[in-house]
UniProtKB/TrEMBL annotation:
Gene Ontology cellular component list: endoplasmic reticulum membrane
Recorded family membership: Belongs to the GPI inositol-deacylase family.
Cited PANTHER family: GPI INOSITOL-DEACYLASE, HYDROLASES, ACTING ON ESTER BOND
Entry annotated with the keyword Ubl conjugation: no
Entry-linked InterPro entries: AB_hydrolase_fold, PGAP1-ab_dom-like
Region: Disordered, residue numbers: 498-518
Regions of compositional bias (Polar residues) in chain numbering: 508-517
Record's protein name: GPI inositol-deacylase
GO biological process: protein transport
Source taxonomy: Eukaryota, Viridiplantae, Streptophyta, Embryophyta, Tracheophyta
Major location (coarse): endoplasmic reticulum
């Protein structure tokens, strides 16, 4: 019964693993529609000749200058006229220098077209934490015209896979440093040539280069900043696109992870230079800013959590922003689409052009001005408006704070006057046309004596379409711009939101669907304190001669109690909605802003929201009953109600906007339940802007396919680390069984035992979690959301068990199939060798036997482990670590195959002897074969077979049969093979990159760290392959217990588990290599004692079965 339960537990874990894997693959393979517009260009790439550093110049990489235009140009003449702002593009993993063409082409068009027209929306700036009160920003405004163009350069890195190998990443950094110097030297050379020819100097020589890096190219840009040969102040601005900053996206190779840690550590020290003199030797980064742009939740290759700058760049020197929250972009896009998505590259181009000082034509030297340009051009004002940021900015408070900027004086309406005023008596105000009227709203009467919030949505443009004012008392002026200084204009508090295309009115007087909102304003009770009235002024309808009037105009505002608009969706309800969708009914006159609070982060459990209009105050459509019945009520309501908008906010990735959200799968690009997650990342807030005139049926359902895909992407590193922990725990069970003089269990049996509840599953599964949380407390780090963190970590541990069980089953099936085939062929050999056609084969075997009988071959055959170690160490140290580990795997596989063949041969021989014995007894006693044997006869059979098997055992004192001994050898070696197979797969991406370089004619020795860890893994595989070695692997008694190999495996498993929790699975090599080097030291000590005539007898009894 116990065995059946263990099988059931493993089967359940395997079923869970396959279910999540299939759902995740289906989700990840589905096509994605990102809404991006393609960018078109006429590219020309001008090669920059190598000069200066001979070592770098003679390399295989290249440097190019981009030129936009279809006309043929003279390269030398074009280089001679270089006078713009140098920008260097660095491609990412496997990328091409030609990927610069989209952003470079749009930069050229933006420079020729000039800055975009101002919309007078609220602009987000720097927060107080980022230095908003800095004196350099006093009176600072964005340039009204572009002073200088951008000269785009790009490095050709041969499409190498820099995300897979740390050495390639370092070589790319070397060349980028050379390219920066080469660019600056080219500008000086071009300037000198123009002066010699008598041409007037157009502008100042650039002293720095702006770096723009995609994917791993962004990390290369940061790595170049700390390079010892980089000139001082050669780079002061870095913009990265979908770049992993925290750790590699594929954190498998140890040297790659170590290089990331080194670069990030140097950056932290670089920003500390300004506050201490002890680290004056470190690169000074005090004037360097970094802006990281993420592609959002559709970027499967690099997770948003890796793209943040937390703990690397202080808020005063950079920030992170997702493309979903960028002004004029509002889209999530794939990893490569971020390079050509027109909405994004246009915004990036205009941002970089705004960095140029109109006086000097070079980027602003002041760090805060450059950072302010990025903040104003990229950030949206929505988070500030709804106080989602940590420090909300409220400029209105009883008129005591500095006034908001008003509309420009040159923007006036028709006759600068308004028709008769309208006094609103209800809490909801609606505008359906540009009527040139002003609407008065009594804050005390309609706003519950100033305790209510006010939200206003419209598709009218600020200033030119609508204006809003706060009045301390009723005014009499009909002017759109009151002269009373106590009246504060709050039009600039309108923030832009994305909207779909407005409906077009084909004929005057025809009815169209309601226009989607493009702006929203929110006033809190604190904002309205000290004021009595709120006015909404609507501009008169413009008249366009010879054309139909513009599409429908709309504006809706409402006073409401914020508590009435709150809805909490509990975790159980969300989980159950995956099987049965849940409905929330919104009656008419509901709050215009509905705040949905999800107890489970939507980055972990994406949820589909569906809004269906069920009523809009229309009792009858005016149509005949037979026609009205055919008309869908929701379509009829679309004529009156504006399309809903969903605004999701996540503390990690920021804002996510879903316009026209009648049916959307709302997901946020968050990384919840990680050890480094912030405490508030366990929940997600979604704000729905819905028309209060309509009633809705809100349906939400969790998407299991999307959740599975997100789970695999977010926690793959954690699953890898847990997998190593599972195998270590299985090896611990095997070694413990050997020490207790019990049969060595198979890897699968050991895994089944470790899944037993409550012991040993509870201590093995939960102790690493508690240790990780304890380390966070010691390091004064914030704790993650405990419930989601523990739940996700246990699921990852179970999935690792499932993956391990599947891998063990598959490998065991292959071994048994190969062994059965081998035994079958060997058993038939005696019949085949008498045939004439096998004479040549017998001659070849005889010749081979003579070769293997040589003295050198006898020595090698006598010590196969020495040969394995020498070959594996040589390949791993001088060629590639993956080759060394493959050699070790081959040795494991041969040993497993031989042991299993011996086990099967002995088992078949035992079975044959039983049959012969039974046949002999049947013949002598002349009894039927159907007649059962007596107990004494069965005992005689078993005793004779056991005597035969024991006679073939290596030890005369063995209490185990030869077949059982060989099976135990197979079980133990099989566990080591699974462990080292996964270690070899960790080097697979690096090996692919190495093969690519070999194909292009390049080769270099592996990094010392990779080679050292590879040697340690090889030593572990060679020296610990025999279970008897555990008797040598002991230390003096510590804390009342002798530390043996099973305890060492336990510590290694816990460390691997914690490495996975820290998203650093490459650290699992450290415990494997440490055990290998420790085993080597103990082996050398044993040999030294043996040479000195000392005999080391274990303090335990001699094991009963020798191998």
């Amino acid at each position: 019964m116990q065995g059946l339960r263990a099988k059931f537990r493993v089967a359940a874990v395997v079923a869970l693993t396959l279910w999540i894997a299939l759902l995740g693959l289906y989700s990840l393979l589905k096509p994605i529609s990102n809404g991006c517009v393609m960018t078109y260009m006429y590219p020309t790439y001008i090669p920059i000749s190598a000069a200066g550093d001979a070592a770098a110049a003679s390399g295989k990489y290249g440097l190019y200058l981009y030129h936009e235009g279809w006309k043929k140009i003279d390269f030398d003449e074009h280089l001679k006229q270089l006078s713009g702002i140098p920008v260097l593009f660095i491609p990412g993993n496997g990328g091409s220098f030609k990927q610069v063409r989209s952003v470079a082409a749009e930069s050229d068009r933006a420079y020729q077209g000039g800055p975009p027209e101002s919309t007078f929306h609220h602009e987000a700036g720097l927060t107080s934490e980022e230095g908003r009160a800095d004196t350099h920003l006093a009176g600072f405004e964005l340039p009204t015209q572009y002073k200088n163009r951008l000269d785009w350069f790009a490095v050709d890195l041969e499409g190498e896979h820099s995300a897979m190998d740390g050495q390639i990443l370092e070589e790319h950094t070397e060349y980028v440093v050379y390219a920066i110097h080469r660019i600056l030297d080219q500008y000086k050379h071009s300037h000198d040539v123009r002066e010699k020819e008598g041409a007037a100097a157009s502008s100042s020589l650039p002293k720095s280069v702006i770096l723009v890096g995609h994917s791993m190219g962004g990390f290369v840009a940061r790595a170049a900043m700390i390079h010892p040969r980089l000139r001082k102040a050669a780079v002061e601005t870095i913009l990265t696109l979908s770049t992993p900053h925290q750790s590699p996206p594929v954190a498998l190779q140890p040297s790659l992870g170590h290089y990331f840690e080194h670069v990030n550590l140097e950056w932290r020290k670089g920003y500390e230079v300004q506050s201490t003199h002890a680290a004056s030797y470190v690169t000074d980064l005090s004037n360097v800013i970094v802006v990281s742009i993420s592609g959002g939740y559709n970027d499967y290759q690099v997770q948003t959590k890796l793209e943040t700058l937390d703990g690397i760049v202080p808020p005063t020197h950079g920030f992170f922003i997702s493309s979903t929250s960028m002004r004029n972009v509002w889209l999530s896009m794939e990893h490569q689409a971020i390079l050509w998505c027109n909405q994004l590259v246009v915004q990036v181009s205009q941002t970089l052009l705004n960095l140029a000082d109109t006086k000097t034509s070079v980027p602003f030297p002041e760090r805060q001005k450059r950072l302010s340009v990025f903040a104003r051009m990229l950030r949206s004002g929505i988070p500030d408006a709804f106080q989602w940021t940590s420090q909300p900015d409220s400029n209105v408070h009883g008129g005591q704070v500095a006034r908001l900027p008003g509309c420009p004086n040159n923007l006036t309406w028709k006759d600068d006057g308004l028709e008769r005023d309208l006094y609103i008596e209800t809490s909801t105000v609606t505008v359906l046309a540009m009527d040139g009227r002003r609407r008065w709203l009594d804050i005390h009467k309609l706003g519950s004596d100033g305790k209510s919030h006010f939200v206003f949505v419209t598709n009218l443009a600020p200033c030119s379409g609508a204006r809003l004012h706060l009045w301390p008392e009723k005014g009499k002026s009909n002017s759109v711009s009151p002269s009373d200084k106590r009246v504060i204009e709050i039009t600039s508090k309108l923030v832009q939101i994305p909207s779909g295309p407005a409906p077009v009115q084909m004929e005057p007087g025809s009815q169209t669907e309601q226009a989607p909102p493009s702006s929203v304003l929110r006033l809190t009770p604190e904002d309205m304190q000290g004021f009595r009235f709120l006015t909404i002024s609507i501009a008169p309808r413009p008249i366009v001669s010879g054309r139909p009037p513009p599409g429908a105009s709309m504006a809706v505002g409402q006073f409401f109690d914020a508590k009435d608009g709150e809805r909490v969706l509990s975790a159980p309800a969300l989980l159950l909605s995956a099987y049965s969708s849940k409905d929330v009914v919104l009656e008419e006159d509901h709050p215009i802003a509905l705040n949905l609070s999800f107890d489970i982060n939507l980055g972990l459990l994406p949820t589909s929201l569906s809004l269906k209009a069920t009523g809009c105050g229309i009792q009858r459509s005016g149509l005949p009953d037979e026609e009205a019945g055919d008309m869908d009520n929701s379509k009829l309501c679309k004529l009156r109600c504006f399309p809903p908008v969903a605004l999701a906010w996540d503390s990690t990735s920021g804002l996510h906007v879903f316009p026209n959200a009648y049916s959307e799968t709302v997901t946020v690009d968050s990384s919840p339940a990680l050890l480094s997650s912030s405490p508030g990342s366990g929940k997600t807030s979604v704000l729905l802007l819905v028309d209060p005139h309509c009633s809705y049926e809100l349906t939400f359902a969790a998407s299991l396919t999307s959740a599975a895909g997100k789970f695999l992407l977010l926690y793959s590193s954690q699953i890898v680390g847990s997998f190593f922990a599972v195998i270590f725990f299985a090896l611990m069970q095997q070694v413990r069984a050997w020490d207790l003089d019990l049969p060595i269990p198979s890897v699968l049996t050991a895994m089944e035992s470790n899944l037993k509840m409550p012991l040993p599953f509870a201590p093995l599964g939960f102790s690493p979690l508690l240790l990780s949380l304890f380390v966070c407390v010691l390091n004064s780090q914030p704790l993650p959301p405990l419930v989601s963190f523990i739940a996700v970590s246990i699921i990852c541990y179970l999935l690792a068990n499932g993956v391990g069980a599947i891998l063990v089953w598959m490998s065991q099936f292959l071994f048994y199939a190969a062994a059965l085939t081998h035994v079958f062929i060997k058993s038939r050999w005696q019949q085949w060798e008498t045939k004439f056609c096998f004479a040549y084969l017998r001659w070849f075997i005889t010749l081979s036997s003579g070769f293997f009988s040589l003295k050198a071959m006898r020595v090698i055959r006598g010590s196969p482990s020495v040969l394995t170690a020498l070959m594996a160490v040589t390949l791993g140290s001088f060629i590639h670590p993956a080759l060394g580990l493959l050699t070790l795997l081959l040795a494991h596989a041969i040993c497993c195959h031989n042991a299993l063949c011996s086990f099967l041969t002995a088992s078949f021989r035992s079975h044959t002897r039983k049959k012969e014995f039974l046949g002999h007894e049947d013949k002598d006693k002349e009894i039927s074969w159907q007649q059962p044997l007596s107990k004494h006869e069965v005992a005689g059979v078993n005793q004779s077979v056991l005597l035969e098997e024991n006679s073939s055992s290596d030890s005369p004192n063995s209490s185990k049969s030869f077949s059982d001994t060989q099976l135990e050898i197979f079980h133990h070696r099989h566990g080591l093979l699974i462990l080292h197979l996964m270690a070899a797969l960790m080097f697979a991406p690096s090996f692919v990159a190495w093969l690519q370089r070999i194909g292009m004619g390049g080769h270099s020795f592996p990094w010392f760290l990779d080679s050292t860890l590879c040697i340690g893994v090889i030593l572990h595989g060679v020296l610990c392959s025999n279970p008897e070695f555990s008797s040598l692997f002991s230390f003096p008694r510590m804390i009342w217990k002798e530390l043996r190999l099973d305890f060492v495996y336990l510590i290694a498993g816990i460390y691997s588990y914690m490495a996975g929790l820290g998203s650093a699975p490459y650290k699992v090599f450290y415990p494997i290599a440490s055990i290998g080097f420790l085993a080597f030291a103990l082996k050398m000590s044993q040999l030294r004692n043996k040479d000195n005539g000392e005999s080391r007898l274990g303090r335990r009894k001699k094991h009963s079965h020798r191998h």
